[in-house]
Amino acid sequence: MLRVRCLRGGSRGAEAAHLIGAMLGRAVTGWVQRAFQSTSSAGAAQMQHVVEVEHVTEPVLQECPVCSYNEWDPLEEVIVGRAENAQVPPFTVEVKANTYEKYWPFYQKHGGQSFPADHLNKAVAEIEEMCNILRHEGVNVRRPEPINWSLEYKTPDFTSSGMYAAMPRDILMVVGNEIIEAPMAWRARFFEYRAYRPLIKEYFSKGAKWTTAPKPTMADELYDQDYPIRTVEDRHKLAAEGKFVTTEHEPCFDAADFIRAGRDLFVQRSQVTNYMGIEWMRRHLAPDYKIHIISFKDPNPMHIDATFNIIGPGLVLSNPDRPCRQVDMFKKAGWTIVKPPTPLIPDDHPLWMSSKWLSMNVLMLDEKRVMVDANESTIHKMFENLGIKTVKVNIRHANSLGGGFHCWTTDVRRRGTLQSYFH
User: Which residues constitute the catalytic centre (predicted)?
Assistant: First the structure.
């Protein structure tokens, strides 16, 4: 049985057709040569030979299990992260720059140790229920491997312990039939890729492309060791001046600083994504895809999807507290800009690694269904007004680990084609 890998979309579809034709051509040519070389002309033997060759050359098209071009096509398969064994990262300069001052004592006390056990157990249970609901909605759910993140490791440049495999959106990006492993920027996340390697190898064996971006050394030169952050005002000033804790020493980026809309991807320079990382992505994806750099009035830029979350063709949630400086180019392109309501999460709920705006960090199951926080009644109303059905799930304790539904997932396969939505 001849098995042919199917490459979807654009020139890759033509490549697949060419591959099939070439392989069938070679098979038929071989049969003809063998037929003429045969000195045995028994009718039954000839018929048996023909049947055998026809069986060998019958093409079976195998669907590539990885294919996603945007954030809203019908979701068929998704990776959901794990809270098991999650560790508080050591309180290094890059962690300090990405967290709020009110939580610095927590990091100083618990860095390198497990998150509070009771809180972590509740987060694990919430994510299990989230997986069950995704399956109920017709989505195939995959999970990373459970790993002991407490082990200390040492490279020639630094020593650290690990963190978690909770947020696949940070490390994995799917563009078409390609899985891209992001290099990351936190030392505590240096070996996070290990939890996903069995899954990626499986997808690769079934026809997906697999690219690992250049792994940074994460030497001291990658970070501004004297990054002067004490107050929110400091953060606003530094961000306005284009100063971040990561330097341009080597490429680094988190995949969650990119958001996809077909042939156009939008990215921000942030505390974990530098211009060298953005340039690497631009060159890697050209000429089929275009990278647009956008920025926001954000004192702590890290991951774009709780600031600017594209939820449909020409439809984007834009955080009113962090306005986009390039919003006019989206309006000129005919996009609809929706400002989500103020989050309802209580002030006393711990958000060690994020802001309350995880309320807009939603996962689109298709253009008319969205997975959203069960507690955020005002955003439910917003989606209803947009004609989008809400699939409500409670992950409040999981939020504390730094992500909403979009962060906790990476969509592996969405049913759709490569299109342009930004003109």
Answer: 254, 303, 407
